[in-house]
Amino acid sequence: GIDGPSLLADIAETAAFGGTAKGGICRLALGAEDRQVRDWLGTQAAALGGVLTVDSMGNQFIHLPGSDPALPPLVMGSHLDTQPTGGKYDGIYGVLAGLSALRALQRSGYRMRHPVELVNWTNEEGSRFAPAMMSSGVFTGAFTQAQAYGTQDARGTTFGQALEEIGYRGAEPCGQHPVRAYFELHIEQGPILEKEGITIGAVTGVQAMRWFDLRLSGQEAHAGTTPRAMRRDALLAAAHVMIMIDEIAQSYGADTRATVGVIQVQPGSTNVVPGEVQMSLDLRHPDDDVIAAVEERIRTEAARQAEQQGVTLSMKRIWDSPAVHFDPDCVEMVRRAASLTGQSYRDIVSGAGHDAAYMGHICPTAMIFIPCRDGLSHNEAEHAEAGDIVAGANVLLHAIMAADAH
Amino acid sequence: GIDGPSLLADIAETAAFGGTAKGGICRLALGAEDRQVRDWLGTQAAALGGVLTVDSMGNQFIHLPGSDPALPPLVMGSHLDTQPTGGKYDGIYGVLAGLSALRALQRSGYRMRHPVELVNWTNEEGSRFAPAMMSSGVFTGAFTQAQAYGTQDARGTTFGQALEEIGYRGAEPCGQHPVRAYFELHIEQGPILEKEGITIGAVTGVQAMRWFDLRLSGQEAHAGTTPRAMRRDALLAAAHVMIMIDEIAQSYGADTRATVGVIQVQPGSTNVVPGEVQMSLDLRHPDDDVIAAVEERIRTEAARQAEQQGVTLSMKRIWDSPAVHFDPDCVEMVRRAASLTGQSYRDIVSGAGHDAAYMGHICPTAMIFIPCRDGLSHNEAEHAEAGDIVAGANVLLHAIMAADAH
Ligand SMILES: NC(=O)NCCC(=O)O
Ligand SMILES: NC(=O)NCCC(=O)O
Known about the structure:
2 copies of one chain form a homodimer. With 406 residues, the first copy, chain A, is an alpha+beta fold. Chain A has helices at 4-14, 32-48, 92-108, 134-139, 145-150, 159-165, 192-196, 234-251, 288-308, 328-340, 355-359, 386-405, and strands spanning 51-54, 60-64, 74-79, 116-121, 181-187, 200-206, 208-217, 221-222, 257-259, 263-266, 272-273, 276-285, 312-321, 324-325, 345-350, 365-370.
């Protein structure tokens, strides 16, 4: 089985790459700290005797051969990038647990039929470069590599430039890597498993998610002289739009999620009525039809709210990731692995997006969740218990072994 | 009288220092473009035979001697810094018209009893370094120079560093400069003169203004997994606070102005519920008692709004500039100068802050307004008519001559 102490030590060691004062990690995709943790992973691959491949999106694959050279690899993985105020587990856990599973296979001498691989996907978070799950998206054909390369961060650096800068633009064309099946282990990032006291979530799918870019355009004016009736205040209009979005989301039930996470105002001066606002909207629901209805309602109402403030609004959808239903056989392998290793388990739907959501389009896929404290994620205080961490890694290992036998 | 064409040419020439594609100016205090326009003014001083002094806040004074060496100077002036999306007239007009008045006095051979000076005040706008009217504030003792030097811009550069960097930290201690009386010419920046078809405003005072720094503190969380009921969304709370401020301001009548011009969100990621928001509030009213009452109402209600969203709020007053009433004799000199030069005029209260507001605390002071198109200011489209520009400059010249005779 998994060497628990060494997995926990790897989590502690890599947390130093971008570690924050509050005990979290700030390791944005393709930054200096991302390079450090990638280099670290490369060193581990060599120590393990694995073969490292980097593809043209910077995805890292570590390969261990199987007994049958004709079979494509079974792949485990997740991501090593984080949010600006990210925790030590989101993504990282899945990669390091996969590494510990490779080590366990090597150590045991157990010979798998399929090759087994670990993947570290580039820019899963989508925080520096939108959208999320970018490189599994290119891998599976959801976007083109050219689209991804051209994406700019807030400073105008493109993804392509940043990839070159850290030296991780690999030779293998992204998407050419064969995959027999894909398993991703992750913290739940929500409150369900913890609340119910269950260790393993057998993830049956991922809810639908859409991202939007909203722009409000009013008129800059003097804060001291401009009467209220003459104002076309883009920020005040944005405030009305935000509240309206929240109300609409709530009216579609507790499963609806609507979040404005980014807002930029121009010119951004204390004594100037704002002329321009740009803001993001992250919208989610488990049901494709409901998310479409929520979007439609928001479009109509937001335009009306803005108009009432004398402001024009544009709302552009920049990402659409429909609801995903994982492969029933793979999900069943996860349930059995949990049962075999003596862990409590239940089915669960993911509220967060994962590279597995895109991989599910091209190969049999499933995910494994473990609880995290207070359901908190995308927060420096994110926490998972050592016992759950090791339990989840053993479920991953057994799911892969089951897939090999399948 | 004033040489109109040369004044208009100066306005056009200096508009190139920080000129924008939309025909406005972006010349933030103590930036490279501010240095350029200061150097230009120094060259004009030399050409005029005036003596240039720079004080320890970077204020530039150009001195022409009078016939009585015992008398302190009559001072005209305004500022050459702009908003990020500023126009070609705000502040600039007052400085360049003052320059044209000095030239007119030189050319005419008319010998004033008092010395006459022109001043360019540093950082009147308060956009890069808060608050506004910073250097006239230090000059008149409203803040200490140490406070001003320590003020940071959004990048963490202090005012003191920026002043050194552009080479405008002068030897004369700020505030030691004698002033007999102060006159400032400015565009109205509001709609009144234009609407009434009047050329000259005899400014009787400046309304009260207060600036606040608001901070909302909630909890970062995952946008996809965190149920609405568990969220403590600092940006959604900020939206509620902004709307509430607008409603309170409106309830205190049409003379109340409340503006949120700056908002920053942390961590600022599309898929993270915002944990922290910082925003500015600019509050104004002609009456000191009313502005105090509005502030009090906002404090109570804003805390309640934030609490309802599970967010804590702090609201710090960072600037308090009480209502100012200018010197009746000086105001009367402006009315007479308007009458003498054949211009229509009326009394008016300034909605914008001006260096004259602080100067009024230490010496007899008044201001002169001319109309601006659509009352629009702090906007690249800011515009004043050539006829009004020259008329205002002649009123300034005659007011100074009246003060000399007084
Ligand atoms: N797992 C995770 O947090 N991924 C980021 C994409 C998302 O926002 O759901
Ligand atoms: N005149 C002017 O726009 N000054 C800036 C200070 C203020 O906000 O009123």
